[in-house]
Amino acid sequence: MRHQQMLSTHDLSIGYRNGNHVAAAIMQRLDLQLHGGRLTALLGRNGIGKSTLLRTLAGSQPALGGSVELDGRDVTGYDGRELSRLLSLVYTDRTQAGGLTVKQLVSLGRYPYTGFFGRLDSHDRKVVNDAMEATGIWHKNGAFVAELSDGERQKAMIARALAQETPVILLDEPTAFLDVAARIEVMALLHRLANEQGKAILLSTHDISQAVSLADELWVVTHDRRVLQGCTEDLILTGAMQQLFPQSERKTVAFDPMLGDFEVPLQSAAGYQLECSDPILRHWIANAMHRNGISTTGTAGIITVHAHGNITLSLPDNTTAQCHSVAELLNLLI
Amino acid sequence: MNNFTSDNNTRRSCIVVAALAVAVVTLACLCLVVGAVDIPARAVFDILAGHGCGNQAWELIITQSRLPLVATAALAGAALSVAGLLLQTLFNNPLAGPSILGVSSGASLGVAVVMLALGGELGTLFGTTIGGYLSILAGALAGAALILAALMVFSSIVHGAAMLLIVGIMISYLASSAISLLNFFSTQEGVHSYVIWGLGNFSGVTAGSLPLFATVLLLAIGWSILLIKPLDALLLGNRYAESLGVNLRRTRNSLLFVSGTLTATVTAFCGPIGFIGLVVPHIARLALNSSSHSVLMPCTALAGAAIALLCQLVSVLPTSVGIIPINAITPIVGVPIIIYIILNREKIKYFN
């Protein structure tokens, strides 16, 4: 029962209600499931409604139709305190928490469990310490939130969500303002937490390559506002990622299933056959060629790579040229 | 979460609380001794201890004038500062204060209506008869309640603390404009007593009305202590607070009601006193190096009492000339601190 269904939607419609009239349905007929022990990434272009979906799942925005079921009950049936023991959230909101220590911040995660004055008992303290250890922020426990880097601050907010001891954690673009090292660290942390602690974790992100490499499941919001759900690799192999953007934009951006990320699609007539036994060398020489609109298959010539500084270009008229760097090769090709 | 801060922080909190308590007691003693009439410290002590000192006039001055004055200043300072702290956290805005909500303006408008519109009949009764006095109090409370009702309606429509803050500012402009109109159409005596009240004065509370004043303020301060837990959660912003199980609307309305009551009561009795509510929470945060309300709240109350007593002491220093209005002193204390905070906001932790 490791991958138990924690949260599910049934014929859910989300959007904004204006008075009693349905003003704008953003997405309709969603039947989605979130599983324990898995990290799920919610992908979709800006403004497509990812945040609205997260808010609706969290019960803070009413659904236009259908239902969200959390732990076997409709999410709107819980009061604030019950809900806060089942579902925790991480946003990128600005906070006033700079004057709290990391420990005090993480302790706020115990809010649903503590009494009137918020005093922590020994169990609460243990949960808080464990949460700080699990997120790798323990060494900063006495530091003020204002003194943390963006990545550390996000880890502290995740630790606070962990201290809330909820089976479901929703994160709205938790890596948005982080540098690449912190992004990878936070994603890997979330993946580890989902797997080790059996939590159902859903995060929205624009970081396709990180999502593809670390998310167990994807929810892909297509350009026409459907949600494709499944195991990451199954979705990639069935072309779901191409549907993030409409057909009209595929000339400027397309998903490269080899790379696992979006890039500028190659449009070239000319192409050279690339022969190289070292995969790293091959990758980067192909990268240089693609950037310049040159394909790695074709009959314009043969590029034989012996080593980084030893590249032979053979043309159909039997002339050859030696190159000692990628730059030299490019000079010849362009 | 007092018991869960690092040892260093706990020790610092204890030192700050102790220092503030000593400051409050010292300043209160000085305020009892210094005044227009020279009374030796020993005589003051004897009177306070209940021995009497053989001078009936001195006894009367101490028990009927200076003692209520000291209690009023300390309570008013604590009340305004706690109100400021609640509002700053509620509105997620370190530069919020009791006056910015429009509550002071509402109370002032109520007072203006009583003093100016009814000025013809009441004349200069302010402070001299119970009737005039009670009608001013009723006016202030009614004005503040009106503003609070409007704010509560707006708070259920407008989402986001910043918008509500702007509504508060707009309301206070309306109140000021109404006051100007009243001034324009009112009698000379009415305007005069209103202007005097507007200068701020801790001596408006007599020994007879002190129990009422103190009870209302202590109840409201007690209520704000009950709000410490949700206040800490509100530091994370509304969305986080809600996800932690805070009942946002109820908490918000409680905070508006408590801070409104604190402000209106002080304003009715002492006039619209500026800067204390805005500045003191910052002094407490800087002294404690913490935003955690469990220590911040008591320190803010103590620091507010100390600052108000200090202003009171300064106001009676030029004994032979008269009394300086409190509102002439509070900016001298407040403005440098606000400017210091604005200039150093990059370095101040609770801003980030």
Largest interface: A-B, 41 and 38 residues
The amount of helix of chain B comes to over 70%
Characterize the biggest β-sheet of chain A.
Answer: 6 strands, mixed
- What average pLDDT do the residues of chain A reach? 89
Straight-line N-to-C gap of chain A: 58 Å
* CATH class wording of the largest domain in chain A: Alpha Beta
CATH fold description of the largest domain in chain A: Rossmann fold
Q: Which CATH top level class of chain B fits?
A: Mainly Alpha
What is the number of E strands of chain B?
A: 0
CATH 4th-level superfamily of chain B: ABC transporter involved in vitamin B12 uptake, BtuC
Oligomer description: heterodimer
What features would you describe in this structure?
Chain A has helices spanning 50-57, 80-84, 102-107, 122-134, 150-163, 180-197, 208-214, 232-237, 279-291, 326-333, and strands at 5-18, 21-30, 33-35, 39-43, 65-70, 73-74, 87-90, 168-172, 200-204, 217-221, 227-231, 254-256, 261-263, 273-276, 302-307, 310-314, 320-323. Chain A has 334 residues and is α/β, with parallel strands linked by helices. Chain A has a six-stranded mixed β-sheet, sandwiched between helices. In chain A, strand 1 and strand 2 form a beta hairpin. Chain B is mainly alpha-helical. Chain B has one domain: ABC transporter involved in vitamin B12 uptake, BtuC (Orthogonal Bundle), CATH 1.10.3470. Chain B is 74% helix and 0% strand. Chain B is globular and about 65 Å long. Chain B starts with 6 loop residues before the first helix and ends in a 9-residue tail after the last helix.
Keywords:
heterodimer, A: 334 residues, alpha/beta, Rossmann fold, Ubiquitin-like (UB roll), 3 domains, six-stranded mixed beta sheet, five-stranded antiparallel beta sheet, 29% helix, 27% strand, B: 352 residues, mainly alpha, ABC transporter involved in vitamin B12 uptake, BtuC, 15 helices, globular
